[in-house]
Specification:
Elements: H1 3-17, H2 26-40, H3 45-53, H4 58-68, H5 79-96, E1 103-108, H6 115-129, E2 137-144, H7 147-155, E3 157-159, H8 169-174, E4 175-177, E5 185-188, H9 190-193, E6 196-200, E7 214-218, H10 228-241, E8 242-249, E9 263-267, E10 270-273
Parallel strand pairs: 1-2, 1-7, 2-6, 7-8
Antiparallel strand pairs: 3-5, 4-5, 8-10, 9-10
Helix pairs in contact: 1-3, 1-4, 5-6
């Protein structure tokens, strides 16, 4: 792949997703796209670039973004965030955030294949089960830009060996084991699925199909893929989506230190909107 073709593909990716690919990603992109060229019967990188540059090829642009946006994920990744959610953040939300006592709303904004969203849902379910008295309704929105990831999240079937659950009893409580040829796999149970709503969302699209009264947003290890001005724009939009007193959680690879924002830092990647 020539540098000019690589730069052209990078510009298309940025235009349609705001993902910024640096010069160090050319080898990764080449590796991920080789099989796609074979599937399409395209014999050169120049031909592929001409193909995706045609205005009517939006479906192929989505396929390209799917290949670019493949990220590592797992259940309860960066577990300290979920521990903190269960030990302090949820109590603060329920006690102090408008509307949370009747319906708690959370958003896993870059949920990839669903593991983060279902980890959130399990944490909320566990926390509410320990509470005395009436319990609020609750919902976790899960989104990603990758159509392929959204399909996997909707299917909610995972290899049992990859579940990485913090407590062994979670397996029986929240997952149904497969049988026969599916015996190595597990599916999230309906009592969790019913509390997770999955949408394909580009974080830079004009508007989000979500209520602007969220109590908790997880947007972890995604800011690093955007330029600084895009990071600032996104964080401002997330701030707007939260109710007063709501929480934003970012990943260990992310930082808000390079631009101004209206959040209060609570340390460890946890931020709060003033109430």
């Amino acid at each position: 792949m020539s540098n000019s073709v690589y730069q052209g593909i990078c510009e298309l990716v940025h235009k349609h997703s705001s993902i910024k690919l640096g010069d160090n990603k050319q080898t990764m992109l080449t590796s991920r796209l080789k099989s796609r060229l074979l599937q399409l019967g395209i014999k050169s990188w120049d031909e592929y670039y001409r193909y995706i540059s045609q205005g009517q090829n939006n479906a192929e642009i989505h396929t390209l973004i799917d290949l670019v946006a493949i990220n590592h994920t797992q259940f309860f990744r960066e577990r300290q965030h979920f521990d903190r959610l269960g030990s302090e953040i949820l109590d603060q939300i329920l006690a102090e955030c408008p509307g949370a006592a009747s319906k708690l709303l959370a958003w896993s904004a870059a949920s990839s294949t669903g593991e983060e969203a279902y980890s959130l849902a399990i944490t909320i379910s566990e926390h509410l089960a320990k509470q005395a008295g009436p319990k609020p309704d609750w919902l976790v929105y899960a989104s990603d830009i990758s159509s392929k990831a959204i399909k996997a999240a909707t299917t909610a079937i995972y290899q049992e060996a990859n579940l990485n659950l913090p407590q062994p009893q979670f397996l029986q409580r929240y997952f149904k084991r497969g049988r026969d040829i599916y015996e190595s796999k597990c599916r999230v149970k309906p009592e969790i699925l019913d509390h997770v709503k999955i949408e394909r969302i580009n974080l830079f699209q004009e508007s989000y199909p979500l209520p602007a009264q969220l109590h908790l947003i997880f947007c972890r290890n995604v800011l690093i893929y955007f330029a600084q001005d895009s990071q600032s724009q996104l964080v401002s939009r997330l701030h707007h989506m939260l109710t007063p007193g709501g929480f934003l959680v970012i990943g260990h690879c992310d930082s808000l230190a390079c631009f101004k924002h209206d959040f209060q830092s609570l340390g460890g990647g946890v931020y709060r909107k003033s109430s």
